[in-house]
Design goal:
alpha/beta, binds 2-aminohexanedioic acid
Length: 494
């Protein structure tokens, strides 16, 4: 597939002929797409096109913008199978998850379409007579959206749908690992009737075009999901420019398993959290903190179950876990497995690349579990973003919560327990943007805000719900209307 940039309603090449390739991580002999390696001039063109389209898009009533998103939802639904297969071929996650990725985009399109008829501000009473007080939502203008490869349809859709319904125009830079999935989403929005210039896409490297786009003078707000290093750099740069920025970065999510947990349920949850998407979710569980009374039994159960997971091409029905996205991540995960061994953790499952049979040409790693991990080891503190789980022992709920909270990240956490008081305490004391009770750390739904605390994000949650995406993609204007015909002084005339 040949991917092109999408600027001012046209699919165009970059200003130079240079391309990069997107490979199937399950079989790197297969090229999924070639995409343009854009230059700064291409970003300039995309920003200009978005700026010019802004006034008309802004003045289109939000319910009408919603109708376009609704059509996009219908088209995504129609193309779900094809798009899901593309996600699996390009990113590697198993087909069920590839389809789930598209389902999140469908849900978001329909949800944001409905927001076009709500888009609430507030109306409150004034302390003075003959005076109205209200707040309105206004778009920022042109927003830059920079997205990762792990949810190649869902995360771009979260951002694009929310930005558009609020009346912004968009310049979108997808991950270089997943340009084909990104282009397929943009094509659907084009077909749904998003006018020329309202949504633009520029492919290329983060270093060359990502930062240039985020700091471009024609951009009014930026949303970034990706690595901590890149996100923190943007936080520094954009902070100085007073430019609104939402960052969604790393995680070191943990699941607590108490001695009164239903262990078979916890087992399924931990496996799904740790090895779903090959551990390549910001919300993946990379630590399990287990009460000492069930520690041996539970880690044995986990070890046996992990060894039974079938690794392979995500398009095959027999596959439980797909590959790692690319060689760099593959080497990083293997490096962390070496670090875990060197730190003295006990490798009880996996730990090696999978190269046999159909896996010869892909980036496959066995589902890996370390036991006897202590909370301060690097494998228990740093984000790995792969199928590596650390099992840590604890002797009480308080200790478990302390361990979970001992990392600089705070995206998602979970507790398995049948004691209502324990789960209530965990819900209250766990320091993360999302807490799951008797459910895994993954599976956030789009109608609520999604975002992390501390190093996981800048505290502007995205996705949906009040306090989520609408608050980020719009800015508030407060209007006081005095119809008394005389000077009234707030706080004084009372
Ligand atoms: C991410 O990994 O960045 O909660 C997003 C989940 C998904 C979204 C994950 N709905 O796992």
């Amino acid at each position: 597939m040949q991917v092109r940039n999408f600027i001012n309603g046209k699919w165009v090449g970059a200003s130079i002929e240079k391309k990069f390739v997107s490979l199937n991580p399950a079989d790197t002999r297969q090229i999924v797409a070639e995409a343009p390696l854009s230059l700064r001039e291409d970003v300039d063109r995309a920003v200009k096109s978005a700026r010019e389209a802004f006034p008309t898009w802004h003045s289109l009533p939000a319910p009408r913008r919603g109708e376009i998103l609704f059509r996009a939802g219908e088209l995504l639904l129609r193309e779900k199978r094809k798009l899901g297969e593309l996600v699996t071929r390009e990113m590697g996650k198993v087909l069920g998850e590839g389809l789930g990725d598209v389902q999140e985009a469908i849900d978001m399109a329909f949800y944001m379409a409905g927001e076009g008829r709500r888009m609430q501000g507030e109306t409150v009473p004034s302390e003075l007579p003959d005076k109205d007080c209200k707040s309105l939502r206004e778009p920022h203008g042109v927003v830059a959206l920079i997205t990762p490869w792990n949810f190649p349809t869902a995360i771009p859709a979260w951002k694009i749908c929310a930005a558009l319904i609020c009346g912004n125009t968009v310049v979108f830079k997808p991950s270089s690992d997943t340009p084909a999935s990104a282009a397929a989403l943009v094509q659907i929005l084009e077909e749904a009737g998003v006018p020329a210039g309202v949504l633009n896409m520029v492919c290329g490297s983060g270093a060359e075009v990502g930062e240039y786009l985020a700091t471009h003078e024609g951009i009014d707000a930026v949303s970034f999901t990706g690595s901590c290093a890149a996100g923190e750099r943007l936080e520094g740069l954009l902070g100085r420019m007073h430019r609104p920025l939402a960052t969604e970065m790393g995680g070191k999510n943990a699941i607590i398993v108490m001695d009164d947990a239903e262990l078979s349920l916890a087992l399924e949850g931990v496996l799904w959290g740790a090895f779903g998407t090959s551990g390549q979710r910001c919300t993946a569980a990379s630590r399990v903190v287990v009460h000492e009374k069930v520690y041996e039994a539970f880690t044995d159960m986990l070890t046996r179950a992990a060894a039974g997971l079938r690794v392979g091409d995500g398009l095959l029905e027999t596959t439980d876990m797909g590959p790692i996205i690319n060689e760099q991540q593959f080497n990083k995960v293997l490096e962390y497995i070496r670090i875990g061994c060197d730190e003295g953790a006990l490798l009880v499952a996996g730990g090696r690349p999978v190269t046999a049979g159909d896996c010869t040409h892909g980036f496959f790693i066995e589902p890996t579990i370390f036991a006897n991990v202590t909370p301060t080891m690097r494998i228990a503190q740093e984000e790995i973003f792969g199928p590596v789980l650390s099992a840590i022992r604890c002797s009480s709920l308080d200790e478990a919560i302390r361990i979970v909270n001992s990392v600089p990240f705070g995206l998602s956490s979970a507790i398995y327990s049948r004691n209502v008081n324990s789960t209530a305490k965990a819900e209250h004391d766990l320091k993360s943007g999302i807490v799951y009770v008797n459910a895994s750390t993954i599976g956030a739904e789009i109608q609520l805000p999604f975002g992390g605390w501390m190093h996981s994000g800048s505290g502007h949650p995205e996705a949906g719900g009040r306090g989520g995406a609408l608050d980020f993609y719009s800015r508030i204007k407060v209007v006081y209307r005095d119809y008394s015909g005389r000077l009234q002084k707030a706080q004084i005339d009372r």
